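Question: what's this shape?

___
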Amino acid sequence: VITGRFRNNSRRKRRRYFYQIPYSRNVTPNLPATGVFQDEFLVKVFRGQFNQNGNSNPTPDVSTRIKITTIVPMYLGLSLVPTGGSYNPWDNFESINFGEVSARREKNMDMIILSNAGYLVKFSSLGNGKLTHQNSSISSQIPYQLKVLGGPVNLAGSSSSPVTVLDVPGVTANDGERFNLNFVVEKQTAVMSGRYFDRITITVENKE
């Protein structure tokens, strides 16, 4: 309740009141969804004496509604980290080194995504799912297996047409949603010696 008094004369008087909405950090386990959020409250002005039992005049002289609106923008964040690493918005590159493939090799890493809307994750492999020799004149290749959350990913043809690996609705937790990426190269005995490589580009797209 806000109270005030004007002197009884014919001059017009005005008083201004300001309301303040303090910043409040998100305390829910998930990110706030993107969109427009609104609230509304009613302000009533009474003339007359106000006491603990209520106003002597129960009918307001004037009333108005005040609407508060805020917009939560869309957010997408991607982080590529070693297995168990924390989300870092500036860490979006990870290197996997199999070493010598004279025996079966297996490597893991994590992909963490922050989003307050549904999203798609697409993979594109420069070598279409194969390690190619650093000398482009040598056609020798080494195939490898990629799994995301235990599910195999077929990267064939993805250099020209990225493959959709994940289709996720809703929002993520405040610290992101973690996906394990597993890479396996089997023992190689009939390939040219040298360094082999591939480059996978990961794209996260909003789907709303």
Summary: The radius of gyration is 30 Å. The mean pLDDT is 87. DSSP finds no helices and 15 strands in the chain.
